[in-house]
UniProtKB/TrEMBL annotation:
Segments forming domain YncI copper-binding: 24-171
The protein, known as: DUF1775 domain-containing protein
CDD domains recorded: YcnI_like (cd08545)
Taxonomic lineage: Bacteria, Pseudomonadati, Pseudomonadota, Alphaproteobacteria, Hyphomicrobiales
Listed InterPro entries: LpqE-like, Lxx211020-like, PCuAC_sf, UCP037139, YcnI-copper_dom, YcnI-like_sf
Alphabetical UniProt keywords: Signal
Record carries keyword Ligase: no
Organism for this UniProt entry: Agrobacterium cavarae
Signal peptide range in chain numbering: 1-23
């Protein structure tokens, strides 16, 4: 097995007082279609016994959940443990024999008074409708407390009869013949898109190549990109972003530092130097949309308002492209 560690500064958190000290971990969406790519959004509703804050969440991925990619979280280090699968799977026409088998979010601080969601994208492969995928979960808390959710119900057994049931995702039959290469197709929260809009001018600024991508069921955040050209003789600054389709929107940056990929919110915005072009693109500068009212669907447009120091407010639309245009093209050939 190999281990990959990333110190991360992505943002996705929610707060809600827990009403039951015995509530167990569960998934936001408890079902998934056969051979679909999903975002498994794990809810951790409370800390360990005694009200201890959660500082680490470990998730063992079940056989049949392949090519997993966890979502980074603000203030948590991310550890990905890789290993061999028990059998070989097909993914986009290629044999897949190994990949992530356990995900760990470490070094965080989730007080007992709040809950949070930990998200893993992956593909359901080789699991028949009617079966379940159990994800064994362990919480590590301050003062060395632990809470384990790792009991798997036997065939026909009611999981509620277990003291510490592992959260599960139940597999359902495909709908409308959709499978790989359709709506459930994805390769990352910041995957590239091909959709683009015309040029929007605001003062000395020219905005082009605006885009976003379709979101998967259960995916809590969306991304957005645009190219900004400053044709003037003085600098401007992108101060903020907003959209009526999201509870809030932020400007973020992904960058490598000492061989570690870090993501951080840019509270001071982005400077657009005079006579230069700034690109917001996958793997670099980008928008993040939180508390999305309805998942972005391919073919739709996301209205966005950008606020600049000098150019003021500028309204643009982000055309929603496929979840992964490169793979979608491949699957239609």
């Amino acid at each position: 097995m190999t281990t990959i560690k990333h110190a991360t500064f992505a943002a996705f958190a929610a707060a809600l007082s827990t009403t039951s000290a015995f509530a167990h971990t569960s998934f936001v969406n408890g079902t998934a279609e056969e051979d679909s790519t999903i975002v498994a959004a794990l809810q951790v509703p409370h800390g360990c016994e005694g009200g201890l804050a959660t500082t680490e969440v470990q998730v063992v991925l079940p056989e049949g959940f392949i090519s997993a990619k966890p979502q980074p979280k603000a203030g948590w280090e991310l550890e990905i443990i890789k290993g061999d699968y028990q059998k070989t799977y097909k993914n986009h026409g290629k044999d897949v024999k190994s990949g992530p088998v356990e995900i760990r979010w470490k070094g965080g601080n989730l007080p007992d008074d709040y809950y949070d969601t930990f998200n893993i994208q992956g593909k359901v492969a080789g699991v028949a409708a009617g079966k379940t995928l159990p994800f064994k979960v362990k919480q590590l808390c301050s003062d060395k407390g632990t809470a384990s959710w790792d009991q798997i119900a036997a065939e026909g057994q009611d999981p509620h009869s277990l003291d510490n049931p592992a959260p599960v995702i139940r597999i359902t039959a495909k709908q409308n013949g959709e499978g790989e290469g359709h709506a459930h197709h994805d390769h990352g929260a910041m995957a590239d898109t091909t959709a683009s809009a015309g040029v929007v001018k605001a003062g000395d600024l020219e905005l082009s190549q605006a885009s976003t991508k379709a979101m998967l069921p259960g995916q809590p955040v969306g991304g957005g990109f645009v190219t900004i050209r400053n044709t003037g003789t003085s600098d401007d600054r992108l101060v903020s972003v907003s959209s009526p389709l999201a509870g809030r929107a932020e400007i973020h940056e992904m960058a490598m530092a000492n061989d570690v990929m870090k993501m951080r919110k840019l509270n001071d915005g982005i400077v657009v130097p005079a006579g230069q072009t700034v690109e917001l693109s996958p793997g670099g500068l980008h928008f993040m949309f939180f508390n999305v009212k309805k998942p972005f669907a391919e073919g739709d447009k996301v209205p966005v308002t950008l606020t600049f120091e000098k150019a003021g407010k500028v309204s643009i639309e982000l055309p929603v492209g496929p979840a992964n245009p490169g793979e979608a093209k491949h699957n239609h050939n």
